[in-house]
Amino acid sequence: MIFAVSQTTIDVAYLVASVCLILGIKRLSSPATARSGNVVAAVGMGIAVVFTLASPEIGSYWLIAAGVAVGTVVGVASARLVKMTAMPQMVALFNGVGGGAAALIAAAEFHRLTPGAEHVVPESMGAMLFSMLIGSISFSGSVVAFAKLQELLPGRPIVFAGQQVVNGLLFAGLLAAGAVAGVTEAGVWAVVLIAGSLLFGVLLVFPIGGADMPVVISLLNAFTGLAAASTGFVLENTALIIGGTLVGASGTLLTVLMGRAMNRSLANVLFGAFGAAAPSAAGAAAEAEAKSYREITGEDAAVMLAYASRVVIVPGYGLAVAQAQHGVRELADLLERRGVDVKYAIHPVAGRMPGHMNVLLAEANVPYPQLYDMENINPEFPRTDVALVIGANDVTNPAAREDPESPLYGMPILNVDQAANVVVLKRSMSPGFAGIDNDLFYRPNTAMLFGDAKESVEKLIAAVKAA
Amino acid sequence: MSQTLLTSITIFVLAVFLGFELISRVPTLLHTPLMSGTNAIHGIVLVGAMLIAGSADSTLEQVLAFVAVVFATINVVGGFLVTDRMLEMFKRRPEERE
Questions:
Q1: Which of A228-242, A304-318, A432-446 has the lowest mean pLDDT?
Q2: B8 in a domain, yes or no?
Q3: Which segments in chain B show pLDDT lower than 50?
Q4: Distance (Å) from the C-alpha of residue B59 to the closest C-alpha of chain A?
Q5: Residue of A nearest to B60 (CA)
Q6: If both were cysteines, with which of A156, A160, A237, A399 could A403 make a disulfide (CB 3.0 to 4.6 Å apart)?
């Protein structure tokens, strides 16, 4: 033992750590203090970890040292190397391993306590089983979310007939397996519970389309928090209960806030199979062929922009993929120097995560006051000369406002179609991530500029300079 | 119900209310960093993983505990670093604009 201290000292340290975590979350929710909030939370975590090491319960250190060393190398490397655009899937992955850790802790405790001379106390058993269930779901669900965002799996919903019945039966089966594991204290049932939960996590996220992925990641984040809190009940550890519960509660609220921004209930996100009701990709593409759209050259679009008085830029995932944020800022600067009023319209769920666009544009040094939320920018569109849509699709689809048949109907959108002119930068006419054709592209005031967003923006910059 | 359990439940219930209150007025701008930051915070399972790893005696428990420590460390270290990288971008104010 390096330095053993009393349990009371450790509990006091946990109290200090909890206060740091709470202050950290509080500071994270305001732009001015956010970065320090993250540091405060990390300090709290550090205090909890260091004092746990001093716990008399710990008999040997080599496993801990080896595990922390491996985890640190992997964690630092992946956090440093990941591109800004791949951030959402990285968060999903970090979330998944947290859930996995909670499930493994519960599994190890289950193995240690059973079969024992006495029965495990019911509340401790219940908490262990809950950790295994939720932690495993969070792990496999997050891995599928990662694979979808990384495009290792198709982003569109993967559905099969009777899916909800299968999921319902599986979940009932999991509860039954958990009950049997709790009563018999047999390891084999714990294995069944974990394996079944992993499968359930996969099936839960499979039918969810890419557009809804942020909501799902946030939900799984809350799940992991609850799983962590539950291990706190197993180990009778207040730091775990507080840390886990804070995330469980705030994560749930964040999920609800995101769902509200898309005007959809959580149940709708989870069971609605967004996009599946729309025509198949082939059907949508064929339909797109039939309707006519107008193509525009970079030069023409540049002239339109250069002689406009009000321009609104609408960024979407295409901008993130193409890393076009720096180019966009340069274009906006050029236009401003010519006296054009430039604003950015940020849809709450543009990109793959809420705030995704804010992060990217902040990286390119776009001034914060130029970014407008949906509610603030929508009244501006009728007075806008050119709306420049860069790689955004579903969040601009007027069908959400006009067509009760559309799966998007009711989702608040950016009303770009009300601008005098709309220029859409897009790679091709293929439908968006949700797999729904966008009516905007066929409007008479819309012109399409095809190509990679970054290359198209560079073309516009060159042409605006020449104009 | 034991006294310990009752205390734990009290802490749990208060933490639920606190969690809701803390983030009820978050601007959309900060949703992603906040999700990422809270994601790092549930890495507190590392504390549990270390307690298990420090007292594991059978091989199976040692394997489970080792993987749990690795996973939880990735969650903590990766989570805080990624959040910091995101927030770093908000720090620079565009003072150079004319």
A1: A432-446
A2: yes
A3: 92-98
A4: 10
A5: A108
A6: A399
